[in-house]
């Protein structure tokens, strides 16, 4: 496929991962989750806004009975993780005794997921795991076990497929990497 360059605000981005490859990875994750959670009826909590496309494509491929809900937890501005994390918004479900799977767009420092998992564990779920589209292992600052990772990437800023740069780029079907 031909590489493409796009401009969002003041920055240029090049194609990095194409939709077909993303879907292939997500299909494998869905099959893994189907196997791991057979008979457990998990509750998926997709973290908005970034995970909406990942959640949609993953959950279409999960075939076991499951519940799906959406929460918000935002702490990211521009290209730097701010470190401090806000509380969970929009969680209506009682997660006590449930098998919870958090759906994230990307794990960078791990502050966000670490904080979210701590807040969820206080509600005494039967189990909590994380499924993320992307993970930057070199940036991780917490001893986090992220069980389901569609793709690990180097420490580059990426957009597309749900991920934004100051509000733009979420609608792109492929993932793009910043031109440095
Ligand atoms: P963490 O708390 O793990 O450092 O960062 C998690 C959040 O930062 C993600 O949910 C995402 O919103 C944002 N983030 C981290 N890296 C990137 C990136 O490369 N591109 C974009 N668009 N957002 C990112
Ligand atoms: Mg996120
Ligand atoms: Mg963002």
UniProtKB/TrEMBL annotation:
Specify the superkingdom. Bacteria
Q: Which pathway does UniProt place it in?
A: Purine metabolism; IMP biosynthesis via salvage pathway; IMP from hypoxanthine: step 1/1
Supply the alphabetized keyword list. Answer: Cytoplasm, Glycosyltransferase, Magnesium, Metal-binding, Nucleotide-binding, Purine salvage, Transferase
- The principal localisation class reads cytoplasm
Give the Enzyme Commission number: 2.4.2.8
- This chain's protein is named Hypoxanthine phosphoribosyltransferase
Q: What class of enzyme is it?
A: transferase
Q: Which Pfam families match?
A: Pribosyltran (PF00156)
Residue ranges of every copy of the Phosphoribosyltransferase domain listed in the record: 20-165
Molecular function per GO: guanine phosphoribosyltransferase activity; hypoxanthine phosphoribosyltransferase activity; magnesium ion binding; nucleotide binding
């Amino acid at each position: 496929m031909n590489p493409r360059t796009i401009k969002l605000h003041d920055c240029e981005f090049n194609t990095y991962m194409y939709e077909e490859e993303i879907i292939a990875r997500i299909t494998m994750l869905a099959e893994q989750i189907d196997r791991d959670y057979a008979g457990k009826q998990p509750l998926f909590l997709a973290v908005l806004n970034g995970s909406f496309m990942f959640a949609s494509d993953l959950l279409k491929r999960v075939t076991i009975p499951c519940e799906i809900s959406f929460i918000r937890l935002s702490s990211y501005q521009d290209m730097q993780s701010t470190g401090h994390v806000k509380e969970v918004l929009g969680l209506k479900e009682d997660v006590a005794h449930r098998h919870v799977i958090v759906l994230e767009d990307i794990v960078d420092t791990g502050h966000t997921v670490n904080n979210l998992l701590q807040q969820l564990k206080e509600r005494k779920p039967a189990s909590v795991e994380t499924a993320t589209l992307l993970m930057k292992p070199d940036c991780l600052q917490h001893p986090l076990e992220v069980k389901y990772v569609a793709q690990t990437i180097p420490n580059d800023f990426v957009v597309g497929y749900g991920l934004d740069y100051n509000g733009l780029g979420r609608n792109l079907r492929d993932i793009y990497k910043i031109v440095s």
